[in-house]
Amino acid sequence: MLPGGLVSLKLTVIGTGYLGATHAASMAELGFDVLGVDVDKEKIDALGRGELPIHEPGLPELLRKHTESGRLRFTTSFEEAGAFGDVHFIAVGTPQRAGEHAADMTYVDASVTAIARAATKDSLIVGKSTVPVGSARRLKALAAQEAREGVTIDFAWNPEFLREGYAVEDTLRPDRLVIGSDSATAEPVLREVYAQAISMNTPFISTDFETAELVKVAANAFLATKISFINAFSEVTETVGGDIRTLADAIGLDSRIGRRFLNAGIGFGGGCLPKDIRALQARVSELGLDSTMRFLNEVDEVNLRRRDRTVYVAETLLGNLEGKRVAVLGVAFKPNSDDVRDSPALDVAARLFNSGADVSVYDPAANSNAAKRYPRLNYVDALTDAVNEADLVMMLTEWSEFVRIDPAELAELVAHKVMFDGRNVLDHRTWKDAGWDIVSLGHKSELLDPVSL
Ligand SMILES: NC(=O)c1ccc[n+]([C@@H]2O[C@H](COP(=O)([O-])OP(=O)(O)OC[C@H]3O[C@@H](n4cnc5c(N)ncnc54)[C@H](O)[C@@H]3O)[C@@H](O)[C@H]2O)c1
Ligand SMILES: O=c1ccn([C@@H]2O[C@H](COP(=O)(O)OP(=O)(O)O[C@H]3O[C@H](CO)[C@@H](O)[C@H](O)[C@H]3O)[C@@H](O)[C@H]2O)c(=O)[nH]1
């Protein structure tokens, strides 16, 4: 039996990346003793010193507070984790498999195996990573098979819906909690873990494994579809005219549709939406349902076409990219994050560089991650350095620092006053009044040819 009483539960969080580091520090904030576990020793050493290796607003403060209080510790030792934890959260990566659409389950399988073998007391393993439907049932059997003699391992799936940039807020005050299990014992333990959110009337959905796994990928597939829906209309308004922002505002006023996730621009990226829609298609195909999620191919294609169109816009505005100075503002996949996984902005910057442009990049947090992927771009530490003598300025990630730019001040620094607003967040009237040519996706421009597909 697990010990009763809220703070007597000891938690481990296995995998301490964007999701795991947030979950570990947030659980410590709720009063639990937490042990973060990772195979990356450098990461564990940094976290143990209270240093966060990623950019996530609010998380450095929580990490420092609880490494200092002693409530939050980090280790690479599964033996230590197995002796310590009553509940083990699995938060390791499930990236796209190289050359395929399917999710790579290697890390999940390895971590479940390792903790099941190491557990020296009855405990509950709770999967949080995003996985193909059917994984939880398989992993539960794997954990039971690997457990030591006399040790019982319960199993639950508890998908995570946090957004980067709001990760702490989303963890402490989630929209909903979803728990999948097939035992009577897992749910009460997770009700104890999440007692604070439950006391704030957070909906708590207790269901089977398959529903819990599918809720997660369904949510991301819906969000991706919403973005590609508005971006498909961008292709139309770029051709016939019209204003994509007004269109989004107007349909968004229908409460059945809603305005959120209808921001047209260079499209979605990150470590979640792109790989999750591909993994979902791969999984349903494996299940013999080849046609069911075929529309997600289109969602993916519309999304990737926005990047092609952005490169085309730069080529057209500059005539020829060779030797032209392009200032790229923002390479993170979204603002308030240093994450460049599948970042549309970084992809575009690299393609312009490969076509001969002289690309200067400034991002408030993502320069160093971007430099690990594309070391040959010219990364600078200030916006003013990036735009110096630029022939074209491209705002590709809508950090507030960029949204607030004064076009008159910027005009003093550039060689040519040409702005590409990749996220449809700038006030075009103000920019035009300051003497700029400003172009964005979703608007017809006399400077560009219509979309042709
Ligand atoms: N990033 C998000 O916003 C977010 C939100 C919800 C769900 N998710 C899902 O959560 C999972 C993790 O995503 P992430 O963005 O945190 O990834 P990440 O790459 O930032 O972190 C994964 C961590 O797991 C560690 N790891 C790998 N193998 C391990 C093992 N055998 N034992 C212990 N640690 C191991 C890695 O070293 C890394 O630190 C993915 O399935 C993702 O789809 C992510
Ligand atoms: O109207 C919009 C909204 C978003 N985006 C882009 O879509 C991507 C994803 O944005 P967002 O969903 O806010 O970021 P993530 O942090 O990746 O969060 C998503 O992926 C996580 C991991 O699965 C989930 O937990 C979250 O609920 C889900 O929103 C980014 O590139 C955004 O720029 C748009 O282009 N237009």
Structural class by sheet pairing and helices: alpha/beta
CATH superfamily of the largest domain: NAD(P)-binding Rossmann-like Domain
CATH topology of the largest domain: Rossmann fold
What count of helical segments does DSSP give? 19
Major sheet characteristics: 6 strands, parallel
CATH architecture of the largest domain: 3-Layer(aba) Sandwich
Q: Give the overall form.
A: globular
Strand order of the largest sheet: 3-2-1-4-5-6
Task: Kindly provide the radius of gyration, computed on alpha-carbon positions and rounded to a whole number of angstroms.
Answer: 24 Å
Small-molecule binders: nicotinamide-adenine-dinucleotide, uridine-5'-diphosphate-glucose
Number of E-state strands: 14
Number of domains: 2
InterPro entries: 6-PGluconate_DH-like_C_sf, NAD(P)-bd_dom_sf, UDP-Glc/GDP-Man, UDP-Glc/GDP-Man_DH_C, UDP-Glc/GDP-Man_DH_C_sf, UDP-Glc/GDP-Man_DH_dimer, UDP-Glc/GDP-Man_DH_N, UDPglc_DH_bac
EC number: 1.1.1.22
Family: Belongs to the UDP-glucose/GDP-mannose dehydrogenase family.
GO biological process, one term: polysaccharide biosynthetic process
Write a structural description.
This protein is of the alpha/beta class and 453 residues long. The chain has two domains: 6-207, 3-Layer(aba) Sandwich (Rossmann fold); 221-440, NAD(P)-binding Rossmann-like Domain (Rossmann fold, 3-Layer(aba) Sandwich), CATH 3.40.50.720. Helix content is 44%, strand content 13%. It contains 19 helices and 14 strands. It has helices spanning 18-29, 41-48, 59-69, 78-84, 106-118, 135-146, 167-172, 186-193, 195-199, 209-240, 244-252, 273-286, 295-318, 344-354, 367-373, 383-387, 400-403, 407-411, 428-433, and strands at 10-14, 33-37, 72-75, 87-90, 123-127, 153-157, 177-180, 204-207, 325-329, 358-362, 378-379, 392-395, 418-421, 437-440. A six-stranded parallel beta sheet has the order 3-2-1-4-5-6, sandwiched between helices. Helix 10 (209-240) runs parallel beside helix 13. The longest helix is centred in the middle third of the chain and has 32 residues, at 209-240. The termini are far apart. The site of uridine-5'-diphosphate-glucose has 21 residues, from helix 10. Uridine-5'-diphosphate-glucose binds at residues 130, 160-164, 220, 223, 227, 261-263, 265, 267-270, 272-273, 333-334.
